[in-house]
Structures are given as C-alpha cells and as structure tokens.
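Appendix B: complex inputs.
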Amino acid sequence: MSSGTARSAPGLEPDRAAAAPDGRAMADQPKWRRDFPIDAGQDDYVSRRELVKFLVLTSGAFAAGQLWLVLKSYFELSFTGAPAAAVAAVDELPVGGAKTFEYPAGSPPRLLIRTGPASFVAYDQQCTHLLCPVVPVVDQGRLHCPCHNGWFDLATGQPVAGPPRRPLPRVTLEVRGPTVYATGVEVSPS
Amino acid sequence: MSSRSRFARSQRMTIVSGMLAFVVVLVVLQLWLLTASVNAYLGGDRAIVVPAAAASLACFGLNAGLLRYLLRLE
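Resulting structure:
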C-alpha cells in the first residue's frame, strides 16, 4: 500500500481519522457531518466483513444439507425386504382395470393395473413432477398425469412426455394362484 | 475494534474484498452441488451423494478457515 498510514504504531491510530464519503477534508464537511462523523471506510469494512460471516454461515447450511442427504440415504427404509402383501384378487380387475392400494400399509397410494389376462403392473399413483394422481390409459400403453400433461410408459414407468423427469416408483408383483401380491418397491435411476 | 493491527484499514479492506470473492465462488459451488445431488438423489442415483457431501464439507472448511483468518486480522 502506498498510503502513508499503512502501519499502526503505538499511540498513533491512523485509521481513526473519519473519512467522509466524498473524500474531502472533515473541515470542509457540513456541520451535521462534523457533529456526527461517520467513518465511511470503517463502515465499508465492517459491512464486507459481516457479509463474509453471513456467507460462511450459508456455506455451513449447505454442508449441513449435504450431510442430511447422506444420512437420509443411509437410513432410508428399504421396502425391498418388506413382507409380501395381497393387494387384489386376479378376477377382481378386468383387463385395463385399475385399483389403488397401499404397500406397505401407510405408504403413498399405489396403482395396480391389469394390462393383460395374466399381466399386472403397479406404480406409485403420485406423479413424480408435482404429486398429482396419474391415470392409466391402457389402450395407449401409458399413464397420464392430467395436471401438467405428463406421460409415463405403462410397461416401465419411465417418463415419455411432459414435465416429469423421473420414473414412477414401481411395485414388484407376484401372482400366486388367484391372488396378486406386492413384494417390493423399486426406485429406478432416472 | 482493536487499536493495534498488523494491517492498516486500507490493507484489511483489500484482504476482505479478496476473501469475499473466494467465499462467494465457494458458496455458489456448494449451491450447485446441493442442487445437483438432490436432483440425482430424487432420481434414484445414490452414488453421488457421499462425494458431493465431501466436496461441500471441504468448501465449508475452506470458508471457515478464511473467516478465522479474517477475524484474526483485527
């Protein structure tokens, strides 16, 4: 620094001189500023220092958010080991028919769809865009979300059109005799 | 404020401005990391969560170190 007051010395406080924002000497300032001499330089310094503190706090919040995500991922319940549960009788649904169920109990609503005489699929009923209920359109081989015109493939649950970017979580099924059982939930990568 | 400082105010002002630039860049990086990892997590990709958290913690550690240095300037 070229300033002549670059270094503090005992008994000398070069930074103490209040500098007016316009840079003129204090003697040239209006009376109100001489009476209440705000040190603009110090004011700027403190403002930036406080902004740095706030941003470091924000940085800590982001790091905490990342840790929360790690913990959530680590402790997230896996339904793949949940016991199988009967969700419908085979004859209960006509081909193209659908019904909602919960698996496991208390879960978000799932949608069981009969796509053929011996084939069933089941997905979360909530659209992965904004959680509107999806509606099966079996003759087109798709699921439709009417809220924002989102479409999913009926066979895979993958999004095929509209705003959704993530597939519908799929419930794995087993047909044992006259009954359809849910055996697990798959959340496949997008 | 301490009456004794290793640096004049003009020097501290330069230091804090440079530090602020670093911190802003790191915080923006952390914001991007959090957005990207939440997006991946919701899409079912869990592999990215731990490396992203490590990177974010490293950024926070750097920011905290800079802040510590800033507080010791005075």
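The mean pLDDT of chain A is 84.
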